[in-house]
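[SOLVED] Need 3D model of a two-part complex

Original post:
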Amino acid sequence: GQNIDQPTEMTATEGAIVQINCTYQTSGFNGLFWYQQHAGEAPTFLSYNVLDGLEEKGRFSSFLSRSKGYSYLLLKELQMKDSASYLCAVRDDKIIFGKGTRLHILP
Amino acid sequence: EPEVTQTPSHQVTQMGQEVILRCVPISNHLYFYWYRQILGQKVEFLVSFYNNEISEKSEIFDDQFSVERPDGSNFTLKIRSTKLEDSAMYFCASSEARGHQPQHFGDGTRLSIL
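Solution:
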């Protein structure tokens, strides 16, 4: 079956670094996306990985290992505005979203 | 920056009625999508649309649902004979291409079925 797992909630401190993990089991794989979703708002695109390795974009980086069915999103220099849900999504023949990780940032 | 726009922002409908949710994708985008998110749950794919036809759909997208691109700018989702469990946030998204291009989401329509 299709399954995407990520932690339900995480807490981190302003200025720190946090890593949000995602594991997936899908029948096919055509790329993995990370989205940010603030409460009551639409998801916004953060990153895309289709090849193994690290993609860096400012304070955010995303890593993929296709052989392990594993990705992580790394957030550096955390700011209060980073408090949101982070959604891992895999493109099979369609896009399947995980349930999201709710990240709480403490001052 | 161009954005996907959705109307209305909130729709309240009696159970059994038909509802049409409207979206204007970004103008140079070719792929269009509908998702739904039941309160507190994950985003669920409904359907993708390209070249005036459905390219993929999920098990959720049954005969109750239909999509249409009635003109060069609008992309609509019609839900016939709505049920209580159709209450959710419905997001429209669009992308330039299918692969690595990100999908840009609209702000959503909150559908409440009474």
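Edit: Chain B touches chain A at residues 33, 35, 41-45, 48, 56-58, 91, 99-100, 102-108 (CB under 8 Å).
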